[in-house]
Amino acid sequence: MSVVLYALDGCPYCERVHDALRESRVDYETEWVEALHSDRDEVRRVSGQRGVPVLVDEERGVTMAESANILDYVETTLAR
């Protein structure tokens, strides 16, 4: 899968990104992260920080955080 979303269950920002990806018919995989920031080593490894959501688009070489930025990227780049 070339698009991966790192998300936390119950996170409203993550849910907005999930909704946008689904509505835009983007094929993606979700990597669910731990609730504690200190346990989010995988997110830190891919993005340099531990916050979520984080979107990784391997095909385009893009990794980004912040839901507003991700939503814009989905709309302008990934939407079908």
Number of domains: 1
Low-confidence stretches: none
Number of strands: 4
**Looking at the structure, what is the overall shape?**
globular
Estimate percent helicity: 25-40%
CATH architecture: 3-Layer(aba) Sandwich
- Highest CATH level, the class: Alpha Beta
Strand content: 15-25%
Order of helices and strands: EHEHEEH
Going by CATH, what is the homologous superfamily? Glutaredoxin
Helices and strands in order, then pairings?
Elements: E1 3-7, H1 12-23, E2 29-32, H2 41-47, E3 54-57, E4 62-65, H3 67-78
Helix pairs in contact: 1-3
List the defining traits of the structure above.
globular; 3 helices; 80 residues; 39% helix; alpha+beta; single chain; Glutaredoxin
Describe the model.
The structure is a single chain. With 80 residues, this protein is an alpha+beta fold. The protein has one domain: Glutaredoxin (3-Layer(aba) Sandwich), CATH 3.40.30.10. It contains three helices and four strands. A four-stranded mixed β-sheet has the order 2-1-3-4, sandwiched between helices. A hairpin with a 4-residue loop joins strand 3 and strand 4. The longest helix is centred in the N-terminal third of the chain and has 12 residues. The two termini are 16 Å apart. The model has no long low-confidence stretch (mean pLDDT 96).
Quick recap of the structure?
The chain has three helices and four strands. By secondary structure, it is α+β, with helices and mostly antiparallel strands.
